[in-house]
Write a structure and sequence with these properties.
The chain has one domain: Orthogonal Bundle (Helix Hairpins). Helices cover 91% and strands 0% of the residues. The protein has two helices and no strands. Helix 1 runs antiparallel to helix 2. The two termini are 31 Å apart.
Length: 167
């Protein structure tokens, strides 16, 4: 006469929420990795810009040194000036790339923030469902204990009635 143990009716929903939590955790990790990659790209671009600035300063020093010593020829000066001009243009392009990369970093930071919010929401949903399951289990246990107590009481009554009848 053992009763079949009742199943938690919202278990499939709890399983889905746990799966969502795992997925949002994975997405958060991906967002952090993407942000780190974007920041590394920015660092690389800034290093490249610094190299261009260093080359330009070196070229200017060489040109001024040649002028100071009187070794400069007009064709050499034009070549140096064109080289410096190209370096200035390259620096401007790097500045644009750096600005674009900063924008990409902002977008990656927004994705990280959204992924954090999603993960927190998923954690809350799982916690709520687990608490509900806990309360349900507690109610089931109380219900079972009540039924057992009722049966024991009935058994006691039957035993008392038998003893009374036997006399």
């Amino acid at each position: 006469m053992a009763k079949k143990k009742e199943k938690y009716r919202l278990q499939p929903l709890l399983d889905v929420r746990i799966r969502n939590k795992r997925n949002s955790e994975i997405e958060l990790g991906k967002a952090f990795r993407a942000l780190k990659e974007e920041e590394e790209k920015l660092k690389k671009l800034e290093e490249e810009k610094q190299e261009i600035i260093d080359k330009r300063e070196t070229a200017r020093k060489e040109m001024s040194e040649m002028l100071r010593m009187g070794e400069s020829v007009v064709s050499d000066s034009h070549g140096h000036l064109n080289f410096i001009k190209r370096l200035v243009e390259d620096e401007a392009k790097k500045d644009e790339e750096i600005e674009d990369q900063k924008f990409a970093i902002e977008k990656a930071q927004e994705r990280v923030a959204q992924a954090k919010r999603d993960y927190i929401d998923a954690c809350k949903e799982v916690k709520i469902m687990e608490k509900h399951k806990e309360l349900w289990q507690k109610k089931q246990k109380q219900k079972l204990e009540y039924e057992e107590m009722k049966l024991m009481n009935e058994l006691g009554n039957v035993g008392h009635q038998l003893r009374k009848m036997r006399g």
